[in-house]
Amino acid sequence: MFSLRLFSVIATAFAAVSALPTQNETLSLGGSCTIKEFSQVSSVISSCTNIVISGLSVPGGKTLDLKLKKGTTLTFEGKTVFGVAHWDGPLLQISGEKITVKGASGSVLDGQGAKYWDGKGDGGVKKPKFVRVKASGGSVLTGLHVLNCPRQCVSVNSCDHVTLSNWNVDVSAGDKNKLGHNTDGFDISSTSNLLIENSVVKNQDDCVAVNKAQHVTISKLQCSGGHGLSLSVGMSKTSAEANVVKDVHFVDCTVTNSDNGIHIKTHSDGAHGTIDNVSYKNIHLSGIAKFGVNIQQDYENGHSTGKPKNNIPITGLSITGVTGSMTGSNSKAVYILCASGGCSGWNWGVSISGAKKANSCTHQPSNVKC
Ligand SMILES: *[C@@H]1O[C@H](CO)[C@@H](O)[C@H](O)[C@H]1NC(C)=O
Ligand SMILES: *[C@@H]1O[C@H](CO)[C@@H](O)[C@H](O)[C@H]1NC(C)=O
Questions:
Q1: Which of 99, 139, 173, 286 has minimal CB crowding within 10 Å?
Q2: Does any ligand 2 atom lie closer than 6 A to the CB of residue 281?
Q3: Ligand in closest contact with the CA of 47
Q4: Signal peptide span per the entry (predicted)?
């Protein structure tokens, strides 16, 4: 009788996990695939494929490094708090193939940004970057609540076939006394086949910044407080391959109370490169203080030089269904500074009201109304 009952308990336990458990998971059913202490991380992630991280405190100066086994499902529960230390980070790194990472309802990843913020971002006291995602193979990361990034929030780097959905990246507390700075929402580099959808970013820098990527869709993203939907291309001074953004599409997004709606910049001191087949479609703007649409080919060392170059031509750019309004005395709906021969083959449908300054455009394609 006893052994029969034990058998049925084990059978029920087996039925409760979706994937076939590994030997170790079988042994550890009953809770040890749940991480509650930092010291448990490496043994659990090396032996389990169905993992819960519950109310974890990560010591300052350490990365919560989740190198997950193929096919792993990991769920964050409760508050994951990252201790304070003055280093580069990242605080959290998630990597793996075909992984599913979920934030349970009410869960938070707390970077404790307020303990670092000094209004100087990458300068000032040393601050860690927060989340780095390096996943592939149809991985899905969903429902993560990223709170109070010390500086850059989420780096999507070297990903292929990955979906990020229902993220809430909230650095709005950094608006207070303008202390939050360089708090980019999603930075995308060396990535292909990425979808970011149904997500919210409240921050003080780019909502999204794409550096190097192909086949990316950003859909239903709500941005506020920051610098808008950006491409920044030409960071590499030596490799034309590193300076490519191609087939990147923003659709059904809103940008509110931000410096820019859409911002495309190429680095005139970078190597040659490509921006091709990029579209912004159905983007609604409100409370934009500087530029509704800003496209500039004159960026160098973090500054506009006013001297555009065509080392990174912008071709096949489609900006349609971009509507909304500006605010404040410095507002300009459209600013385009292309080099001669630097911009061609654009679709244009921009209607932005309320700007205080006149549009200005240089070497824009002839169909672009300015
Ligand atoms: C099970 O876990 C132990 C300790 O974490 C590890 O040494 C062992 O290699 C694992 N065995 C398998 C089959 O994964
Ligand atoms: C532009 O990108 C889309 C989506 O990735 C793709 O379907 C389309 O073929 C591309 N168009 C060109 C001209 O490359």
A1: 173
A2: no
A3: 1
A4: 1-19
